[in-house]
Amino acid sequence: MVFNAFRRRLLLGCAFFLGLLTPIAAGEISGTLSFEKKPPSVGLAYMADDHGLSKSDNPKLDQKDQQFIQPMVVAPVGAKISFVNSDNTDHNVYAADADAGADFDIGLASPGSEIEQEVTWQDDMVIKVGCKIHPKMRAYVASVDSRYHQVIEFDRTQKTHNFRLEVPASVSVFRLWLPNYEPVEIKIEAGKEATAQLIKKGKIYGSITLKRN
Ligand SMILES: [Cu+2]
């Protein structure tokens, strides 16, 4: 009896330990991006068949030290983005993307200001925003309404990057957006793996591998 109880505890202990070592938890996609050259600075992974992201979350895009703090904000059409100037110098935020129909300019944003901009342009696009005062400043706004999304910030010295995305059973259409690359769409069901090429200007620059448990 004593031995059995001990053994059971040992087995439970092992199961718990193995649980900790399991590479991906339930309801997750784990992805690996491999680039042949330098990766871009940022990307967006999301499940395109979810449309539950709230319009009232009011995401912030902050400016400090002459940079946009967030490389990308995700906001569905109809949401309002707050452009915040947390710097001690004037800034501006503008976009001019004819394909998406995004054309705005918040004017002069003085230190401490917070200016709202509604996402009025095309759904499911990623646009570049800049600052007319500091031409090197750059960020992206994704008009994406999926709750299951992740902004991926790349370490540009690394050619391989892993990410994880929590996904419920109800969604299966994975999309990846990378600046200047062709968008990737992969339908992936639980228990499956998939690979796709990363293509820029008609050439293969890398690959993406997904595993869904
Ligand atoms: Cu600026």
Cα Rg? 21 Å
Order of helices and strands: HEEEEEEEEEEEEEEEEE
Mean of pLDDT: 91
Q: Summarize the amount of helix as a percent range.
A: under 10%
Q: Which of globular, elongated, flat, extended, rod-shaped describes the shape?
A: globular
Number of helices: 1
Strand content: 35-45%
Spatial strand arrangement across the major sheet = 13-1-17-16
Instruction: Count up the domains.
Output: 2
Describe this structure in words.
Strand 10 and strand 11 (138-142) form a beta hairpin. The strands form five sheets. Strands 13-1-17-16 form a four-stranded antiparallel β-sheet, with no helix packed on it. A four-stranded antiparallel β-sheet has the order 12-2-14-15, with no helix packed on it. The chain has a four-stranded mixed β-sheet with strand order 4-3-6-9, with no helix packed on it. It is built from one helix and 17 strands. 9% of the residues lie in helices and 43% in strands. The chain is globular and about 50 Å long. It has two domains: 23-51 and 147-213; 53-145, Immunoglobulin-like (Sandwich), CATH 2.60.40. Residues 10-19 have low confidence and may be disordered. The relative contact order is 0.24. It is mainly beta.
